[in-house]
Sequence to fold (338 residues):
Amino acid sequence: MKRKDFLSSIIPAAVSIKAISLDMEESEKKSTIPPYLKKGDTIGITSPAGYIILEDIQSSINKLQEWGFNVSIGNTIGKRDFSFGGTDAERLADLQQMLDDKNIKAILCARGGYGAVRIVDKINLDVFKKYPKWIIGFSDITVLHSHISRNANIASIHSKMCNSFPSDWSIAEPIQIATIESIRQCLVGEKIKYQTTPNVNNRIGKATGLLVGGNLKTLESLAASCSDINTKNKILFVEDTGEYLYSIDRMFWNLKRSCKLSQLNGLIIGGFKIKKDDVGEEYGKTLEEIVLEKVKEYNYPVCFDFSVGHQKNNFALKCGVAHQLHITENAVSFLEVD
Fold:
């Protein structure tokens, strides 16, 4: 091969490596924190995933207004395209309009389900980067949290959505009320400070780092895409629902083999609603055994049974914000730090 041809063949590879290196450096920078809300600010409600009607979000509208916020209802509320909250084009347009509207200070997703990944690559973040705002939701909205973290490095809120607000607050359980109230606390800038009951399988230690994570199955589906999260020096939290133990094991192997577990500062395991094994097809390992097997060579603290996930005790978390996880034999604390 001629020297000229050889050089031309390696230059694209070098450029690619440099781009990857710069991308990784970008993802490790401290996140931009959107402005916290004050009374009179407007929160938009949209449904980038599943279908929902106005009646099913009325309780959330009432509560947001009770907190002193104005509410802007997106065009996707009441729209339907089979299981989706409107067509891909309608859901994209609704979300894009709210991202670009400078009068909207936060966007609360109405529900999860499935659908955000179908529109995420067409979202334009240019205005959003200049005028960041809080994106709120969980489950399928993990797609947005992860994509925003990777491509805009802007903090967001992992929390319950409109369809989780109780319709009758007078009979709501205290844990339901507390978790909804945690959304308001995050939006107005109150620092997160949670304590949880220790699990005997917890790994003791203290860790500080930016928080990343969400629904485990969704994170797995984003691997190697332009929405994939970077976990280096981070605290990772994961949760899931409706999965068999063997499937959970496979997802944790994905995390391990993609090097997402090797450079963590800490690991948080939230709620996992596990499908019962079929008779004769028992997997033979518990969730705790599955996780601890994958992290046995690493030294960071690990917390089980954290109050996040598809459950009533699903507290709001600020993704992209620095937190400290402190686990002892008798207590677990998780708090936001400067």
Notes: The chain is about 30% helix and 20% strand. The radius of gyration is 21 Å. Residues 2-24 have pLDDT under 50 and may be disordered.
